[in-house]
Amino acid sequence: xxxxxxWVVLALVIVSGALFAPEHPGLAIHPMDQFVVKPLFGGDAIxxxxxxxxxxxxxxxxxSVFGLLVIGTRGRAIVPSxxxxxxxxxxxxxxxxxxxxxxxxxxxxxxxxxxxxxxIVLANxxxxxxxxFATTSHIAVTAVMAVLVFLTVTVVGxxxxxxKFLELFWVKSAPLPLRPILAIIELISYFVRPxxxxxxxxxxxxxxxxVLKVFAGFAAALGMxxxxxxxxxxxxxxxEVLVAFIQAYVFTILTCxxxxxxxxxxx
Amino acid sequence: xxxDIAQMGQFIGAGLAAIGSGAxxxxxxxVAGNFLSGALRNPSAAxxxxxxxxxxxxxxxxxxxxxxxxxLLLMFAV
Lengths: 267, 78
Description:
The structure holds 2 protein chains of 2 kinds. Chain A has one domain (about 50-265). Helices cover about 65% and strands about 0% of the residues of chain A. Chain A has helices spanning about 1-20, 55-70, 80-100, 110-125, 140-160, 180-220, 225-265. Chain A is globular and about 70 Å long. Chain B is an all-alpha fold. Chain B has a domain at about 25-75. The longest helix of chain B is centred in the first third of the chain and has 37 residues, at about 5-40. The two termini of chain B are about 20 Å apart.
């Protein structure tokens, strides 16, 4: 059955590639076109209240989080259904991560970290659907989340430890002459955090989707041999599913690391 | 062949910036390879260190993404 399906799809790809071969070869699909923000209901002007494809897919991500965590666990079954066990696994996974990485006293930030993880992972997965829009590929979206994490961490650090939070920059274990230099390095690395935190997620998702579209452009240009790029697209897509999860994981685990720094500023 | 010298510089710069992505790939491979060699020596301690592994990979990868971003900015934003 699986083999038959494979050969049928391969034949369809070859035939359609031969039928719809472009007259002048070249990249038919611009890889960056998929990231254009468009208003949903026509027009060109984008105000802050205009519903665009970004807001649509972000709302769908929020709805799917709601569907997974609220509606999916509505049964409260002792033997969980499939969707309930996915929700429970996600909950346990993030809870353990917060406890292990950020420390036991960071558990009160668990709802925040869980919200971040669920939103990012579902926005990434929804962005992988064909014809959808990857909201997390926009640095504007990821920067808001990263700056919020940065502000939270800074405020929590100062509220919890007062001026002791500055010991994060004044490394007590280093020899005295080295400390001012280390302070400058630590200060720079502290303020680069929101930049690298946001660009890591946005850049990874954007790069992956651009690669997919570049291969799609090859497939459009090659005509009968378009099945070769289609294989490549399949492989890259599998990699992208992995990347979508790992980047959400990395974003949340770095949030936990920063929270740990804020709660226990000593090195 | 036509085009101005500014565009040529733009393209050459984007290509040079893309080298950074390859360098980041070396870094990520280094992190993962060292983790694996350590994990095979002491498999029982490996499970606790996967979080550290991913943090290390993320830090190594971030700089490669920066250079990729520079390439993208040169190509599309300048």
